[in-house]
Amino acid sequence: MKIFRLLIFFLGVIFFYSCSNNSIYSSYRDFENGWGLNDTVFFKFSEIPDNKFDIQFLIRNDNYYEFSNLFLIASLNEDGILIAKDTLEYLMADKQGNLLGTGYGNIRESFLIWINDFDFKNESDYLITLNHAMRKNQEEKGIKILPGIISVGINISEKENENE
């Protein structure tokens, strides 16, 4: 029970932290019938001020999401050059199977931190790509359609000045 409370507290801090930041770019991609294995999500942007910003993913899911975690493959390109590529795992449900995230009813939204303090360059063009990398245990191939994922988003935000 202590771990559950700690997890809820941690998610709450992340939620309030993300809401208190100044968002400079935010975008979503919606899915009608789940997220396809080969359905790459693209986020293209430029004219980001010269500064360090946090990059986080926003996942909206419903009760049809049947897994306790989510594996993602994320890449960041600056002016056509790959500068970061990660395979990420995020917790989506507690040990009892209750979906994490914020929201009410059967829709949940999770704020998933990817990169803290990324140093953006004002004159660069950026591309972030995102794919799910989910597969069932003991199966080699990925899940063709990941049910329960309603939308995937990105948020780039500046930390508030800690001296204020």
Task: Tell me what the structure shows.
The chain is mainly beta and 164 residues long. The chain has a single domain, classed as Jelly Rolls (Sandwich). It contains 1 helix and 10 strands; from the N terminus they run αββββββββββ. The protein has one helix spanning 2-20, and strands at residues 22-30, 35-36, 41-46, 51-61, 69-78, 81-91, 108-120, 125-132, 145-146, 149-158.
User: What separation lies between the terminal Cα atoms?
Assistant: 36 Å
- Extended strand count: 10
Strand order of the largest sheet: 1-10-4-7
Shape from CA axes?
globular
CATH class: Mainly Beta
Stated plainly, the CATH topology is called Jelly Rolls
Judged by helices, strands and strand pairing, the structural class is: mainly beta
Which H/E pattern describes the elements? HEEEEEEEEEE
Number of helices: 1
DSSP helix fraction: 10-25%
Q: How would you characterize the largest beta sheet? A: 4 strands, antiparallel
Oligomer: single chain
Mean pLDDT: 86
Low-confidence stretches: 4-13
Percentage of residues in DSSP E strands? over 45%
Number of domains: 1
| CATH-derived architecture | Sandwich
Radius of gyration: 16 Å
